[in-house]
Write a structure and sequence with these properties.
By secondary structure, the protein is mainly alpha-helical. The protein has 2 domains: 42 residues, no CATH class; 86 residues. The protein has a two-stranded antiparallel sheet. The protein starts with a strand and ends with a helix.
Length: 128
């Protein structure tokens, strides 16, 4: 019975073992022999919303955009660490906060334009 080396702990493990007895790492013989990742890791990570949240932070609404950046930064790290639900939730929260920053920035711009028009009309009617 030949021995293989565990890729995590370096222990000698039987080639017929499903898991390393020292660290418990699953030993997927077929994927290691082919040089590919296991099937579950081939799925792409969810959208991070990082670029969008940075742009909305700069151009629209600083507080909401920063929250979007924080959630966006958590997406890929959690995805590749195997915490898929946390990554999906972070992506959803990043989208929510990025869109909140965008729409609040648009609302502030519209209110500003209305305010300037009202002040302009008021000043014109008073003869300034």
């Amino acid at each position: 019975m030949p021995l293989n080396t565990c890729p995590d702990c370096g222990n000698q493990v039987s080639s017929e073992a499903a898991n390393c007895p020292n660290c418990g790492k699953p030993l997927n013989k077929t994927s290691e022999a082919q040089g590919s990742k296991p099937e579950s890791n081939n799925e792409p990570p969810p959208k991070t919303w990082l670029i969008e949240s940075i742009l909305t932070t700069i151009f629209c609404c600083l507080p909401f955009g920063i929250v979007g950046i924080v959630y966006a930064a958590k997406v890929e790290s959690n995805w590749y660490a195997g915490r898929r639900e946390i990554a999906l939730n972070a992506s959803k929260n990043a989208k929510t906060w990025t869109l909140a920053a965008l729409f609040s920035g648009i609302a502030v711009a519209i209110l500003y334009i209305i305010f300037v028009v009202i002040i302009g009309i008021g000043a014109a009617s008073l003869g300034y």
